[in-house]
Amino acid sequence: MIEKILAKNAIEAVKLVFNTDIEPSLLAVQRTIPAYRNQGDLSLVVFPLLKISRKSPEETATLIGNAILSSMPEAESFGVVKGYLNIRIRQDFWLQFLSGNQHDQSFGIKKTTSGKPVVVEYSSPNTNKPLHLGHIRNNLLGFSVSRLLAASGKNVVKVNLVNDRGIHICKSMLAWKLYGKGETPQSSGKKGDKLVGDYYVLFDRKYKEELSEKIASGLTEEQAGSESTMMMQAREMLLKWEAREEETLQLWNTMNGWVYEGFDVTYKRLGVDFDKIYYESQTYLLGKKIVEEGLEKGVLSRKEDGSVWIDLSADGLDEKLLLRSDGTSVYMTQDLGTAQLRADDYNPEQLIYVVGNEQNYHFDVLKLIMKKMGRPWADSIYHLSYGMVELPEGKMKSREGTVVDADDLMDEMIATARAMTEELGKIEDFNSSEAEALYRMVGLGALKYFMLKVDPKKNMLFNPRESIDFNGNTGPFIQYTHARIKSVLRKAGNEISFNGSASLLAKETDLLILLYQFPQAVEQAAAELSPSVVANYLFEVAREFNQFYHELSILKEENPDSRSLRLALSMLTSSVLKNGMQLLGIEVPEKM
User: Do residues 42 and 2 touch, judged by C-beta distance below 8 A?
Assistant: First the structure.
């Protein structure tokens, strides 16, 4: 990369001019800001070196610039503005890059290595409700991170942990048993996951009605909760499940089967998949064995009521429950088992958990317990913590049925894409099947891009209509830009073969430098586990190309070298947009 070459020469220049070795971080190379691009392509900020040079910023930059020119053949000239040293790279460097990569349809994507895998867990749904808006961000983030890691050369395994057991699952089961009257997805015409979710909401409603009645009779809220028949029946059902009682297991298998069929439909529509699916019902027993091992080693302790805890107060945390007094397991129990199982299955380089930031404490505890248990791979556990998705109306609550259903949201996005696409007249020569495919591509592209362009650590407010704007930082804007380029290339036919001989104009150079940085953007996004890096880079590319397209003629350019150059630039731009959007899990249309 030219940035690394420049950084190396800059460090050597400082040593030569000031007789001082410096840390590379003191001379970070960046793209020249727009105001100074008449002076150079890449910039170095010299303010951190003033204590060493004991000269003004301008003098310091000039001395370093002259030294770089004498040692770096790729550098042509430099300019100095205040503390910015702006280096102009020779045109033939950029032209050779374009000539060598114009037909590379996998530009920016590395081949996967055969090293230790990186295991990425995402989705992790509960089988008591359908996937909702929060799950969409989780799935899109995990899937995109997996693709980014693979594109950076990592061997990636995508896994899902289905939370298919526990008191919350029993609540849906109990409500169906008490009030379902044999209802099935077939008899109701509902997707299985939605049917089961309705009974989870029903349990909560019946439970609250029961509490209200008890409180009205004179009990405190705490007393009413402890005497709730609904909650006691749910706990009894969980105990029966853990005791493998046949009738309970049969109901559990039936209702979970309904949910899995529903999940599969949603995952397919969303365009995400997994290499392996783990089930909590198959890992919690291993977790219990680890708890027993911890008791034997003295890492864990059992209280008088029979519950098992770990005291992490010396580590700046607090006590954490690992087994309830009745012997039933908690989330942490199964996560211990799942982590051990994945370590045994893959011997991974890293175990990445894509889980919301409300679970930060949970994963701090998981990693610490495994360290105290002497697991050498404990340090490979990494929690990719992301912020919550909110709507203009506020937060969602599953048990109250106020969530935005994933399927309903995708339907809404596709319907909005249909309305806006037809309004803008972008389907005049499409047949009906092509139009429907485009609506789906644009609607889901808008949804995915809007979710992924935000730094994962940040909370976000989702606005469906705003996400489908064909202008601005949106998926449809990038999709439309790709379709525009493909239209130009189709009209050009087989004429695209740039031989490296041309003179670059400023707007051509700006676009070319930006395209050159695509592999770097992929590497950065993979290192930071942040698809937003690639998403916002792609917006910049699309915006730069549209400026290039409006300012310079492509097909009507009379100079054959310039025409060939611009077509090659267009071809490489289309590859970058397509490859980058694929890393986000987004399709791009060939026409629009």
Answer: yes
Question: Secondary structure of 506-537 in the HEC alphabet?
Answer: HHHHHHHHHHHCHHHHHHHHHHHCCHHHHHHH
**Count of beta carbons in the 10 Å neighbourhood of residue 282:** 16
407-583 has the same fold as 2-89 = no
Q: Topology of domain 122-390, per CATH?
A: Rossmann fold (3.40.50)
- Could you tell me which of 328, 376, 539, 379 has the C-alpha nearest to residue 452? 539
- Residue 184 structure tokens: 């099935």
CA distance 307 to 328: 9
Residues 6 or more apart from 264 whose CB is under 8 A from it?
none
Query: Could you tell me which of 357, 389, 529, 404 has the C-alpha nearest to residue 459?
Result: 389
Strand ranges inside 268-333, DSSP E:
276-279, 301-302, 308-311, 319-323
Average pLDDT, whole number, for the chain?
A: 92
Tokens matching residue 405 = 């259903």
SS3 (DSSP) at 344: helix
The DSSP code sequence of 351-373 is EEEEEEGGGHHHHHHHHHHHHHT
Strand 308-311 versus strand 29-31 pairing type: unpaired
Q: State the fold for domain 2-89.
A: Gyrase A; domain 2 (3.30.1360)
Phi, psi of 279 (to 5 degrees): -125, 135
Sign of torsion over alpha carbons 66, 69, 72, 74: positive
Which 3 state secondary structure label does DSSP give 279?
strand
Positions of E strands within 90-208: 118-121, 156-162
If you write DSSP's letter for every residue of 379-430 in order, what string do you get?
GGEEEEEEPPEEBTTB---TTTT-S-BHHHHHHHHHHHHHHHHHHHT--TT-
Tokens 């102009």 map to which residue?
88
**CATH superfamily, with its number, for domain 407-583:** Isoleucyl-tRNA Synthetase; Domain 1 (1.10.730.10)
Query: Using CA atoms, how far apart are residues 438 and 421, in angstroms rounded to an integer?
Result: 9
Q: How many CB atoms lie within 10 A of CB 452?
A: 28
pLDDT in tens, 96-151: 999 999 999 999 999 888 789 999 999 999 999 999 988 999 999 999 999 999 99
Q: Could you tell me where the beta strands, DSSP code E, fall in 250-314?
A: 276-279, 301-302, 308-311
Q: List, in sequence order, every residue forming a beta bridge with 87; answer none if it has no partner.
A: 42, 78
Per-residue pLDDT of 192-221, as tens digits, reads: 999 999 999 999 999 999 999 999 999 999
Residue 396: pLDDT band with limits 50, 70, 90: very low
Which single residue is written with the structure tokens 């644009």? 442
- CA 579/CA 86 separation, integer angstroms: 30
Helix (H) / strand (E) containing 89: strand 84-89
pLDDT, tens only, 262-287: 999 999 999 999 999 999 999 989 99
Query: Which H or E element spans position 178?
Result: helix 167-179
Q: Where are the domains of the chain?
A: 2-89, 122-390, 407-583
C-beta separation of 478 from 581 below 8 A? yes
